[in-house]
Every structure is written in C-alpha cells, then in structure tokens.
Specification:
Largest sheet: 10 strands, mixed
Shape: globular
Bound molecules: magnesium ion
Strand content: 15-25%
Number of strands: 13
Radius of gyration: 20 Å
Distance between the termini: 30 Å
Helix content: 25-40%
Order of helices and strands: EEEHHHEHEHEHEHEHEHEHEHEEH
CATH class of the largest domain: Alpha Beta
Length: 375
C-alpha cells in the first residue's frame, strides 16, 4: 500500500473554559492548536494523526521536511518512515503525529484497532484524572470526591508553589479525604516550562529529596518530573534514595535517550508520549526495554484528542502499563476538550477507560467540526 498524499492543516478549537496550565505559570489558554495530518493511500484508505502545535510551525515543518520524502513509500515500511521523521525531528518540530496517521491506515486495512497489532494486552485500563492546574487544598478535596464519582480510579495533583510545604499540605489533605479509595499521584513539572511562562523557583536535588520523603510517607503512587529533563545524575541519585516510584520522560525523545534513562535507573516509570517522544513503533520498542528492566511504561497524554487516542492504543498494547492518564480539569479541560473533533467520545466507567474497538486509532472525525476549526 503506497502513500499517495499527505496534507498538514492547522486546526484551532476552543477549550470549554479558561485553562491555566501548571507547566506554564502565568499563562491562560482559551483554545488548543494542533497540526492535523491526513494521509491518503493508493487503496483509498485514509488515516489521521496530529502534531502538537503553537501555530503554523507544524504545517511548515511537515511540508518542508517530510511530505516529499514520504510520498511513494510503502505504508508498512515503518522503519523507513521513522527514518524520515527522525531526520525532520532534528529540524524544529515534533513530527511523530505523522506516524499516528500511518498506524491509523494499517489498522483500518487490517480491520483491527492498532493495539491489537502491537501486543493487544488489555481492552480496558485503570484510569486516573490528570489535573492540569494548581489550586488550593480546599478546592482539591472537594474536586477529588467529584472525580471519584465521575468514574476515575486515581487523581494526579500538580505541585508548583514557590514554597513546597504548601504543595505537601494539598497532597496530605487529599490523601486524608479520598486516599482510602483512590490512588493519588503527584506531578512536580520541574523538567521544563512553556515558553512565555513567568519564572518560578526550580527545585534542586535536595528539595526533590525532601518532598519525595514526605510523599513516600503518605503512600503517593509516584512523584513525576522532580528534576530537569537531562539531570541524569540527580535523577539517578534521587531514585536510589527514595522508595516512592519516580516517573518522567514525557518529552525525552527516541531510543537512545530512553536507554540512558532506563540504564541509569533515573525513573521507575517511563512516560514517553506518541506526540512528543517518537513514533508509536519506536515507543513500543522503548516500552520493551523498560519491561526488561522491570519498569513501567505509562504514556504521557496531554497534547490533543488525536494524541490521546494514539497513546491509548499504545498503552493498551503493553503488559507493563497499569494506568492511563486522562487529561481532566474542569472547567477548562474536560471530556469536551479531549473529544471535540470526534463523532463519539472515550468511555470512562467504574475506574477504567475502555479502549475503542474501531479499526485504526479508534476515532471517527466529525467533518463539520473539522471544517469549523480548520484555519
Ligand atoms: Mg507530567
């Protein structure tokens, strides 16, 4: 099956409310841009993928570095396709969403959801609500109860106070309120920040160690991104000192980086993302390396709806992925933000997310929505 054409379009859809990302202190989001990829083949099968976007950089990058090198290739030659994407990734963009569209095609051709072609391990996954903002302990206790009622098994808090003892208090209050019946995770988002964020205190190794010790006592499921992305020595030391699992890697890229993180024992849980870290096939290989080292691979999923579905297919294929991250922060980012481009949304029930069984990545684009938000 031959790739006949590839179109990249900027799509900007509204968010259901204002959203203040913990990883971009001082910033407010009202809409979400993405680069929509549409690939057509000589058999007539069409596939969709998406790149994270800030503006037109994805469209320019795909048209400049990828399009001509991909047209004419065999859809099933993933290794050759990944070579083209890796080369493009060194020239300004995260191109991995192009491979999502390829797998969407392969799944449709096989009449199977993608996870069934990559390991097919689980049809439902325990799901946690991944909060995106920093709020007061009082608000979080109230919301944790609502989130449990909405069908989630866990909740991930964001830490970003200049004084970590304020963050620790939030975790303690939430553990007291719902800790018996829900798993609680903490994301410190210390690895980087969105361009344009206001500058806040960055944790050093000793802060991360002290916070980690406190969270350990509370039985927090994991501490995420406690240190900068490439602080291999700090992460390694921290992981060795703490028994609470350390998670990270959401914007590390490709096998060589993950191999270094895994071999140095930087993280107990690797969080590569099909939008940011590599093609789905490369991430499947990385998850296999993690498995050999008795580590979990639980994809990061905050990008856009299509990225969420792609990561769900990856997660469902894996034997070492016990959780699925579902971006959920009312009112700015809830089911509407994740599912706005599709005919049907994802289903969360009794603590689990059901893996969609439609062929390919599992979604069906709603054409009227696409036309409305295409720039
Ligand atoms: Mg994170």
């Amino acid at each position: 099956m031959i790739i006949e054409n590839l179109k990249a379009n900027l799509v900007v859809h509204p968010l259901p409310g204002e959203f203040h990302p913990a990883w971009g202190p001082g910033l407010t989001m009202r809409e979400l841009p993405l680069t929509l990829i549409e690939i057509t083949t000589d058999t007539g099968i069409k596939g969709y993928g998406a790149l994270p976007a800030s503006g037109k950089e994805g469209v320019v990058g795909v048209n400049t570095f990828i399009k001509d090198n991909l047209i004419g290739l065999d859809v099933f030659n993933i290794e050759e396709i990944e070579k083209v994407l890796r080369n493009a990734s060194l020239r300004t963009i995260w191109p991995w969403g192009v491979e999502m569209a390829i797998w969407d095609i392969i799944g449709k051709d096989a009449n199977r959801p993608v996870y069934k072609l990559m390991g097919g391990f689980q049809d439902e996954i325990k799901v946690y609500a991944s909060l995106g903002e920093v709020r007061s302990a009082e608000d979080r206790v109230k919301e944790a109860i609502q989130i449990k009622e909405a069908g989630f098994s866990g909740i991930k808090l964001r830490f970003h106070d200049n004084d970590p003892s304020n963050d620790i208090k939030i975790a303690r209050d939430v553990v007291e309120a719902v800790g018996e019946s829900m798993e609680i995770m903490v994301d410190a988002n210390q690895a980087d920040a969105l361009p344009g964020s206001k500058s806040v205190n960055q944790w050093d190794y000793y802060t991360a160690l002290e916070v980690g010790k406190e969270l350990e006592k509370m039985g927090i499921a994991w501490l995420e991104e406690p240190l900068p992305r490439f602080d291999i020595e700090g992460l390694k030391k921290l992981s060795n000192k703490l028994s609470i699992p350390i998670a990270g890697g959401e914007k590390n890229q490709m096998i060589a980086e993950f191999k270094q993180l895994i071999e140095n024992d930087c993280y107990d849980i690797l969080q590569g993302d099909a939008s940011f870290s590599g093609g789905l096939f490369e991430l499947r290989k990385i998850a296999g390396i993690a498995e050999a080292y008795h580590k979990k691979f639980i994809p990061h999923t905050w990008s856009n709806g299509i990225g969420l579905y792609a990561n769900l297919q990856l997660a469902a294929s894996l034997p070492n992925c016990p959780w699925f991250e579902y971006p959920y922060e009312k009112p700015g980012w809830d089911h509407a933000a994740n599912n706005i481009l599709f005919k049907e949304g994802l289903e969360i029930k009794n603590g689990y997310i059901n893996v969609p069984q439609k062929p390919g990545l599992g979604f069906e684009i709603e054409p009227t929505q696409l036309e409305k938000y295409k720039v």
